[in-house]
Known about the structure:
By secondary structure, this protein is mainly alpha-helical. The chain contains five helices and no strands.
Amino acid sequence: MIPLGLVYFAEYLINQGLFELLYFPNAEKWLNQKEQYRWYQVDYQIGVLISRSSVNLFQVKRLWILPILQIFNMIILLLQIYFSFIPSIWIVLALIFYEGLLGGCAYVNTFYRISSEVAEEDKEFSMGVASLGDSIGIALAGIVSMPVHDRLCKFL
Length: 156
């Protein structure tokens, strides 16, 4: 529950608090600010779709690695907002795609491991607790993203 909740916390903090502020004026020739935001969402969802569809090909046993990677991803994107050090929107699109891959990977591997490793009499409870973990992560990210976004807007 904890790795899944942390992955979702970082993921949704990125989506709810940072996406709108990841803007590349040099991409304005082909994508304005609103279009960039929409493409971030599409890119993220494609990453989620691919990773949630790949558990039969690729499994992650050490789920604790995923929140570390997602938090690191969040820090990179937060630093981009402050310092604008990434030269191209394509790099940010790759990071957002990776964000979706990590989130989908955490979700599908958590539930895959529950379904394959937990005793039959404990599966229903375990799946409910895991679902609670991602919901708590998403809710906390929503709460935290509002002051973070406001603070970033004052800085910019």
